[in-house]
Records
---
Amino acid sequence: MPDTPHFDPPHSVAILAYQGLCLFEYATALEVLSNRRSADDRPLYAVASFSLEGSSILTDRGVPITVEASDEVFHDAQTIVVPGWRMGPVPDPIAAALAMAHRRGARIVSICTGAFVLAAAGLLDERHATTHWQYADQLARDHPRVSVDAMALYIDEGSIITSAGSSAGIDMLLHLMRRDFGAAACNAAARAMVVPPHREGGQAQYAETPVAEVHHKAFSMVIERLRRDPAGDHRIETLAATAAMSPRTFFRKFRAATGHTPYDWILLERIRLAKAMLAEGDLPVERIAERAGFGAADTFRHHFRRVVGTTPSQFRAAFQHDGNSLQAAE
């Protein structure tokens, strides 16, 4: 990413507000972009909020805010930020306004489920986009012309940028600042907020893979055994015997109860354990591979990248970078 600015400050930004607005993501956009200044003390962004649903907005947390309700802010904005959507149908006036803004040359960016608003405006058709991993399948179902990447932190398609969950919105906005005004401006903002200055958009969302609660006593015993010794040699025949079932019955009922085959459940549990060791310690990857039950480091790297979307080393670097940044600020 070049260090030379793409724009002369201040660059005008409008943050879209609406009833049921996600307060955290709205505040995130204000925090990242407001009051940032250039080396010669000029404001980088002129940030304002606007609404097409009245000036009095009740956020998702029940906190009321007051924003500009005139069209002037909207029509003058060079960049429009769309925070997390309240879900449900997007009103035609909002979708039409965003489509019109994009046609006149405005850049449109979304945080988390704000991608649903961009999709309703037709701005994501035939484009790659992301949103929070929990809503990725719904976005793909509701808007089949959008190529949804459920793992990316953010995706930059030039005049359209989408990001994943709330913290990924910070990454996307810092990426935006880096693109607009160079690395020095981005790094200064990141230091002020005590966050990493740059995470690649293609880096995976660090979403835990949920394992269904199991209330069947036999399966609870099996899962307790698996968690107690994840590196053990857990063959279907042995697990089925623990549950007092035939291997075929055990396989079928385990998948019905957990949503995973026994093999996949063990793999996800080993990945979960490996992620904890990578984030919290300094064991070599080879030792983590052994302790988590993968055996060889190459096997571990293969499965980790397939499931998590990044390498063990990149995963560790991201978490240790975050920790070091926070310790340096204390």
---
Amino acid sequence: MGICRVDIHLPADSDAYDTAIRIIKAADPIDYLVLQPEQKDRRLIQVIMRDGPVQAMLDNLQSLLENRSGWRVTVADLGVTIPKLPEPKDEKKNARQQHTREELYVQVSSGAKLNRDFIVMVVLSTIVAAIGLVSDGVAAVIGAMVIAPLLGPILGFAMGAALGELALLRRGILTLLAGIGIALAVSLLLAMVLPPNWESRELMSRAEVRLDGLALAMAAGGAAALSVTRGASSALVGVMVAAALLPPGAAFGLFLGYGEWELALRAALLLCLNVAALILSALIVFRLRKIRPRTWIEQQHADRAVWLNAGLSGMFLLVSIALILLLDLGSAVELGN
């Protein structure tokens, strides 16, 4: 379980000091101390504690201090502490290890930004993916998934809904749409240069809309949300997310460029299905991990956003599954027969 240090800066004459100390003691910290900084009108309380109870303590401190001025709370992860701490006896708390809401917001928000790096990485990954699809090169397609920066927008949209943060939700969906649009435009241009290879299984399989692809997208979205809440490496789940988005997006553009409208529609359906599955599974995981706003009013707004987005995603998935089964869209596609 992780360990962190929480620094609480207060005015020296603040009437909230005693209450803040009681909140800290109630959180069962490993240790805490009160320091007198160089500024004589300030107080600094440093708290060392395990990650588990940090969120509850931060929420209580914010409720205490939100209508006052001159305060600030910072949180920093600690990699090592000596002597070694014993493992907590409460296994349930240990199992609930996750970053605080504030840490998650900063991390996810930064990954959902539409900037020059994001655009360049999408262009490069689409070029690699398109070449891999046309040449039937599995290694090239996998390489494109590794460099595709599509994890951040998905998590940004899902967390924006979970927290009722309209700005983050809007940023996530706009960045995701921009990434898919860039991939589509680049692959359309590449279709004018790369001759079609209808024998390529990597390309033609993106026109096969199967339920196992839906399962992959659901697993990828859930794994991505879980990894970010626990502070684990998101590199591998980022590849899973890219696997559900980048190849269908690139195939969609290639099929449009080659004038194969039916195949393009199939690839577009696969892409939309995967986006809905990713968002739905990420929303479910954030909900199960209790990623919610602090105040009751904000929680009501967040609940509405979660249920609205989950309902729309679920409805789209059900309609898509019905189309897959009724129209047999998962059957192998061959041209020229």
---
Amino acid sequence: MRKQRRALQEASISFLDVISCGFGAIVLLLVIARVGDPSALEEAENQLLGSVKDYQERLFEIRGESVVLDERLKSRKEQLSELTERVARLKEKLASLSKQSNQLSQSQSREKEQLQLVLQVLSEEMQRLLGPEFLQQNQLVGGIPADSDYIIFVIDTSGSMQVAAWEKVKKEMLNILDIYPEVKGIQVLNDMGQYMFVNYANKWMSDSPEMRKKIISKLANWAPFSNSSPVEGINAAIQTFYKPGRRISIYTLGDDYQGRSIRNVVKAVDKLNKAHRGADRLVRIHAIGFPVHFPPGGTPSASAIKFAALMRELSYNNGGTFIGLNSLN
């Protein structure tokens, strides 16, 4: 009985081993072999390969853009470095110029103080030598005697002055008025003797800040007829407003003279304003010439030259000053 049982057990184990190996082989075949539709698998594989290719191309593009951006960043850094260096150099120059300016300002301040001291010493010495007459003869502002209590403007209102020099006329009138902080009377005529304010004809206008503003404002639209000759206006001013004891200055503003004879005008004014030079005249006559007829780089017109010659002679003979402007700006 024991021998038969041992033989049956050996035969059963070999059979199971064979069966197990067979099943294992089948499982391996199922795992290794492709299961399903081959075309679907191939399509899926192609899609995967296409996706991989797209991702690779995108990666290459990103790498290329990254290289370009790196180059731009490098260029910007170089530019920033250059600008920083330029700013540093400019700051150094600015500091140097500021230092030089401060030194120059200090030097000018010291020179000004020294000149003021010298002027004070000279003035005291002149006053000691000349006495009270020195103060009366030294009232000059910009070379113009500013010792008058009354001022009269005689203005050329011709078309050339209106078009080319009127704004400059306003500025020069303001400058003249600034020379005289306060006067007893003001009057404004054109070169023909016509009054700016008809209701003040033949009488003085009281000086005030409001009146000065009114004169400048009225000048903008004031355009009476003019013959470009100041003779009539000067004669009217002297004959109408001079009285003994009045210190009067006439300011003639013009650009040209259309009359024939300068000598006849000088003689006529000399006769009217006395024949003595300097302080013995009844009124002072100043003049300002506007370069309307002086073309840049060209020859001035004959009428402009005549005006300059006439007003220079009149101002010299009548205790005044002639100023010829070199620009209308």
---
Amino acid sequence: MKFKIVLSKNAKNCILGHNLKFNNSFLRKGKVLHEDDIELLLKNKIKKIYVAVKSEDDYSEDYSAELIAKHISSINLYKPQITNGRADLYTKKNGMLKINKEKLLKINFLFPEIAVCSLRNFTIVKKGQLLGNVKILPYAVNKKKIKKILINSSFKNIFQIIERNITRVGIIFTSNDNNNIKKEKILKVIDQRLQGFDLKANIVEVCKHNHKALSESIQNILKKKIQLLLIYGESSISDFNDVVPRGIKKSNGKILSTILPTDPGNLLLIGNIKNTNVIGVPGCAKSLKRNGFDDVLERVCHGEKFNKLKIAELAEGGLYKNLIRKFKRIKSL
């Protein structure tokens, strides 16, 4: 494809390079010009225009966008919807968007005529939601470039929808003062989060805030075939030897981390007891404002297995917008 300035009278079958407005009409960029368009241009005394000339070696913008979108999609996405060189991708089902970031970066880096964008990785999506698109920036692309993408299997499945794999959730509250626990308020807020992906707290227990009582409660609740255990302690978790982690370890569980690089949400525990995921819930979870607990809860409920690297990666974007502390000027001595 080549861009150039041509005489309007010779522009038939060329692609208009820029939008053109007239008193009572409008020609949109990307339009293939026909006889009536030429007449309109000449009538409005436009002698020259900027156009793109498509060659036999080019695919049109719509066809190029469609081919690429189909290639990078997964089975959980609808057939792309095409308009103006843009192929929109919609999800077929509820779940979590999982992006292969390396592939996404690679296709944008290697092919400057093609722009592929999406929602943020790990976004919870609903059936029929727009999650990304492919946009062709010129009005056609050389066939060899498109075929170079299509024969590269490494570009397949850039976007996938991961379905929720947790079906039963249990929660334990620890407290030495049952009159001051605020269990119902906290449970309501946690359930509101879980409802976002069609879950609820199936089993709720309360025990004393000591590691032995917690361990007994854990053993009891695990008998009820839960896949995710949330523990809301009377006090925040300070370190690996605090009440909640000790209770988990006494139940033959493992602790991956007792700190999260997010604010709010620093004091969150991630662990497991055999095949049951365990989250030590931070105090900020009693608010519905998004925090680090949401990141971990959503990903765990959709099968994400955390490790230390994935926890560290939460640092980027881990300072939430709802956290506002004003800058205080320090007076010079």
